[in-house]
Design brief:
Layout (H helix, E strand, L loop, with lengths): L8 E6 L19 H11 L4 E6 L4 H8 L5 E4 L4 E4 L2 E4 L2 H19 L7 E4 L4 E4 L5 H20 L3 E6 L2 E6 L5 H13 L6 E7 L4 H7 L5 E5 L10 E3 L2 H14 L1
Parallel strand pairs: 1-2, 1-10, 2-3, 10-11, 11-12
Antiparallel strand pairs: 3-4, 4-5, 6-7, 7-9, 8-9
Helix pairs in contact: 1-7, 3-4, 5-6
C-alpha cells in the first residue's frame, strides 16, 4: 500500500466508530474486536510510530475504549485533546453547556413520539440517533431536532453536523478534526528530531476535515463504502481490514 519514506516518524491518527470499531445502533455498545485491539497495541508499541484517536465521542469515553494504547486522544471532533504533557480544551465548551442542557430537555420531550430514537448527551454537544427508528419516522425526527436547535443555529451559538442517520449539534466554532490533527502534529513535532508523516484513517463525513488539513505527502485512508469528497490514497472495507493494515504496518517498521 505504501512504505514509510525517508525514515520519517509515522503519526497514525484514526477515527473510532466505523474505523476501529463497527458502527452499532447504540453508541455505548461499540467496542474494538480483540484482533483489532491487539494490532493497534502492537503498532503503538513500536518506536517508529505514534498513534492517536480523533473521535466525535467525549474524550473520556473514547479514551476508556482504546485504553492506554493511544498516545493522543481527541474528543468532540477535536474540541478536547490530551497527549504526553499537553492538553487542549476549547474555550467555547464551557459557555455552551447550559444551551445543550436546555436542548436535551426539550428534545426529550418533543421527540418522545419517535420509536427507537436515542439522544446522546455529551454535555457540550448533543447527538440525535435514529438508526433504530423506522426510516421515514427517523428522517422526520432529525428534521424536528434541527428545528428545535434553529434559534441557536441562527445565532451561531451552535452548528449541526449530519451523519449516518444521526445529527449532532455542538459549539459553532472554527475547530474540527482537521485543526485537531494539526495541533497533535505540532505537539509531536516539538518532541521529535525526525520529520513526521501523518497517516489518517476515517469513515465519517467529519473526517473529511482532517483529510483536507493534511499535507500533500501524508496518507489519507477512507474506511467503508461511503463516497469521499476529498481524494483518498486508498480504501479499507472496515475495522477488520483496518486491523490487518495495522499488522502490515508493524511488519514494515
Amino acid at each position: 500500500m505504501f512504505r514509510r519514506r525517508d525514515g520519517r516518524h509515522l503519526l497514525l491518527l484514526t477515527d473510532f466508530d466505523g474505523t476501529l470499531a463497527e458502527l452499532v445502533p447504540v453508541p455505548a455498545d461499540a467496542a474494538m474486536s480483540e484482533a483489532v485491539r491487539q494490532q493497534f497495541h502492537a503498532l503503538a508499541s513500536l518506536p517508529a510510530f505514534t498513534v492517536g484517536v480523533v473521535s466525535g465521542r467525549r474524550l473520556a469515553d473514547v479514551a476508556e475504549r482504546v485504553g492506554e494504547t493511544a498516545q493522543f486522544v481527541a474528543g468532540l471532533h477535536g474540541l478536547e485533546i490530551t497527549g504526553p504533557d499537553c492538553a487542549f480544551h476549547h474555550y467555547a465548551l464551557d459557555s455552551v453547556e447550559p444551551v445543550i442542557e436546555d436542548l436535551v430537555h426539550r428534545a426529550a420531550r418533543e421527540l418522545a413520539w419517535c420509536p427507537g430514537l436515542l439522544l446522546e448527551n455529551k454535555i457540550y454537544a448533543l447527538t440525535c440517533h435514529v438508526r433504530r427508528s423506522p426510516p421515514e419516522l427517523g428522517e422526520r425526527a432529525l428534521e424536528e431536532f434541527a428545528a428545535l436547535a434553529e434559534p441557536q443555529l441562527e445565532a451561531r451559538v451552535l452548528k449541526v453536523l449530519n451523519g449516518a442517520r444521526a445529527a449532532e449539534v455542538l459549539p459553532a466554532v472554527d475547530w474540527h478534526k482537521g485543526r485537531a490533527a494539526r495541533w497533535i502534529r505540532a505537539r509531536l513535532s516539538a518532541r521529535l528530531d525526525d520529520p513526521i508523516m501523518v497517516v489518517y484513517l476515517g469513515d465519517d463525513r467529519t473526517d473529511e476535515d482532517a483529510f483536507t488539513a493534511l499535507e500533500d505527502d501524508d496518507v489519507v485512508i477512507g474506511i467503508g463504502s461511503r463516497p469521499h469528497t476529498h481524494l483518498i490514497d486508498c480504501r479499507l472495507a472496515g475495522p477488520d481490514a483496518v486491523g490487518q493494515f495495522f499488522a502490515r504496518l508493524s511488519g514494515q517498521a
